[in-house]
Design a protein that fits this description.
heterodimer, A: 207 residues, alpha/beta, Rossmann fold, nine-stranded mixed sheet, four-stranded mixed sheet, 29% strand, B: 256 residues
Chain lengths: 207, 256
């Protein structure tokens, strides 16, 4: 069962539809009291980082996510949901969930059109299962003004060129995120979501 | 590198995809969701639905077809037409639209752009801008002015000034239609699109005038448009999206 975290994010329904199309069962997790057995978690997100953290907090979802991650449940953040995985965002100068080390700065709008909007290529940086069986440098749909700057290059799954290269997919085998919208990226996006559902496995924790 | 986008525009009347012949006599060409899915499978980068339904009694019908598009199409789509209030934005987004376009209502009350961006985020606020050139006596173009109400009323506003103001207020991108080029199949208004691309900090979608492949490469190369809207070129079966993209690749224009 895939749990989709529901905190009012704009793209929750499209993520849900994409998962359904792929044939996986999913439920919405609306607050921290959910006791359903969950195999994988998805944190969608569109909008403002500070507002999103407030919404997650109010619904008691922050301790829920932390507990699930500690238990070894794989988590995929999408767009703003990915940015929230890091420690801190410049958008509203807010703290994030801190599940990955790094920050979320703003693009240099003196040199670039911001938001970065449209289709751009994602280069595979470490043969992560999210990009498995996808053609090298597949295009995905992006809409964002802030981007992930993970502290360690070990946490870079995919790289995209916009002025400079930035980390467009980040994380490890258990906590991961993508800056683009796989739910709006046609076949390539559906393949990436399928990879998450298929290959992200619960970490075996010793008692 | 960011790719240049090819964006099919689909006119919708009630809950049917239609084609207009000389801006009237709509003929049904299919179902909005099925047509959208077909174009998405063909390689469209995004879809724009121009809702021409005027009657209020058909509003619920509108949300129904948008919901079906959202079910079947896995690329972004915008809905434009008749949007006047924040509630209109909310209902269209809730039905599944990724972006909502606003045109006349933003000219009349520009604060609508600030309010929509603050609530829903810039990424889903699209400004529809209809432009008409103002000529000097020698026949050269002096400037462009903004028209509203489907091109029937001249607001008297300068296009570049309005585009800049709209971007500052919260529009995330602009679809600029040159009224005098629309339906002519003689090419986009390259001069205007170039000017907007230079002066405005948000993406510009060129609309109106495409009739052959060279028009599309021209608006990317000569005017630096971010996206090109195509309608009759593909609806009538003269060209396909793969043909358009193959043509653009020949000119080394980055496409998906």
């Amino acid at each position: 069962m895939i749990g989709i975290l529901d905190y009012g994010a704009g793209n929750m329904h499209s993520v849900e539809k994409a998962i359904k199309k792929l044939g996986y069962p999913s439920i919405r997790i609306e607050d921290g009291t959910c006791t359903e057995e969950i195999d994988q978690l998805i944190l969608p997100g569109v909008g403002h980082a500070e507002q999103a953290m407030i919404q997650l907090e109010e619904r008691g979802l922050i301790p829920y996510i932390q507990r699930k991650v500690e238990e070894g449940t794989p988590l995929l953040g999408i767009c703003l949901g990915m940015q929230l995985l890091l420690e801190k965002s410049d958008e509203g100068n807010t703290r994030g969930l801190g599940l990955l080390k790094g920050t979320v700065p703003y693009f240099d709008d003196t040199k670039l059109k911001v938001p970065h909007m449209g289709w751009n290529a994602v280069k595979d940086a470490k043969q992560h299962f999210l990009l498995k069986d996808l053609p090298e440098a597949s295009d995905f749909y992006f809409v964002h003004s802030y981007f992930a700057a993970p502290t360690s290059s070990v946490d870079i799954i995919g790289l995209t060129d916009y002025g400079d290269e930035f980390a467009s997919a980040i994380g490890n085998d258990y906590v991961m995120g993508v800056q683009f919208h796989p739910e709006k990226s046609g076949e390539a996006g559906l393949k990436l979501l399928d990879n998450f559902c298929r290959y992200a496995k619960k970490k075996v924790t010793s008692c | 590198m960011l790719k240049k986008r090819i964006v099919p525009a689909i006119d919708v009347l009630d809950d049917k995809a239609v084609k207009y012949v000389q801006f009237r006599n709509p003929t049904i060409i299919g179902d909005p969701a099925e047509l959208g899915r077909k174009y998405a499978e063909d390689g469209a980068d995004e879809l724009i639905y121009l809702d021409t339904t005027a009657s209020l009694k058909n509003q619920e019908l509108k949300y129904e077809w948008i919901r079906r598009v959202a079910e079947e199409v896995y690329i972004p789509f915008s809905v434009i037409g008749g949007v006047r209030t924040i509630d209109d934005f909310r209902l269209l987004l809730r039905a599944g639209a990724d972006k909502v376009g606003v045109n006349s209502a933003a000219v009349q009350r520009p604060e609508l752009l600030n309010e929509a961006a603050a609530i829903f985020g810039k990424q889903c606020v699209v400004l529809g801008l209809d432009a008409m050139p103002i000529m000097r006596e020698d026949g050269s173009i002096e400037r462009w002015e903004v028209y509203t109400h489907s091109g029937h009323e001249n607001s008297g506003r300068d296009v570049v000034e309005w585009a800049q103001e709209a971007a500052d207020r919260g529009a995330g991108e602009i679809i600029c239609t040159s009224i005098h080029k629309d339906g002519m199949k003689t090419g986009y208004d390259v001069e205007l699109i170039r000017l907007l691309s230079e002066k405005v900090s948000i993406p510009i979608i060129a609309s109106g005038g495409a009739g052959k492949l060279e028009h599309i490469s021209e608006v990317f190369i000569e005017a630096n448009a971010d996206a090109a809207l195509v309608a009759s070129m593909i609806h009538y079966g003269h060209y396909t999206i793969p043909e358009i993209k193959a043509h653009l690749r020949e000119y080394s224009i980055p496409v998906r």
